[in-house]
Design brief:
78% of the residues lie in helices and 0% in strands. By secondary structure, the protein is mainly α.
Length: 179
């Protein structure tokens, strides 16, 4: 924090410094101070996406999904390619019980960044809870592409295949799960 404050004194209009200070204070548990610094970052660069994302994450962590979603939307408005903001908007929508919106945002996040396993995990867990094993299998295949050593995932995939009466594939997955 001391180094960032010194950097701020050298370059007081640099919005990224305020954003980093916000992140430091968020990690220290000083949420009000963190939000103040994110707001200052946006004063210097209202078109920035990251401070909105970080503010949304803070609100999300404090179980304020509606407010969080508002900030995720602002982050996306400033940067439509912000996959993290789309992912968190999806999680917040799911938490509110708006499954269609959540699914749309998670799918958008995956399109923007197809190599983030957490996006597929969110999607896969939603399909699993719905007992939609066909779509779960697709999400699980992508998770395995990114984490081919996951025994737990092979186990779940084996169950999904068995539920779809694809017993040979299920057997293969179960053998991979116990390796």
């Amino acid at each position: 924090v001391r180094n960032l404050r010194h950097a701020r004194s050298l370059s007081p209009g640099e919005w990224k410094i305020y954003g980093l200070l916000g992140t430091c204070f968020a990690r220290l548990g000083q949420y009000t101070k963190a939000l103040d610094y994110y707001r200052k970052a946006l004063l210097y660069n209202p078109q920035a996406s990251l401070p909105y994302l970080d503010m949304g994450k803070l609100y999300y962590e404090h179980k304020k999904s509606l407010l969080a979603k508002e900030y995720f939307s602002k982050a996306i408005a400033n940067n439509p390619r912000n996959a993290q903001a789309a992912y968190y908007a999806g999680r917040a929508a799911f938490d509110e019980g708006n499954e269609e919106e959540g699914l749309r945002w998670i799918t958008t996040a995956i399109k923007l960044d197809p190599d983030q396993i957490t996006f597929y995990e969110q999607l896969g867990s939603w399909y699993w809870r719905k007992k939609d094993y066909v779509h779960f299998i697709q999400a699980a295949k992508n998770m395995l592409r990114l984490n081919p050593e996951s025994g737990r995932l092979y186990h779940l995939l084996g169950i999904a295949y068995a539920e779809n009466k694809m017993y040979q594939k299920a057997f293969y997955c179960f053998t991979q799960a116990i390796k």
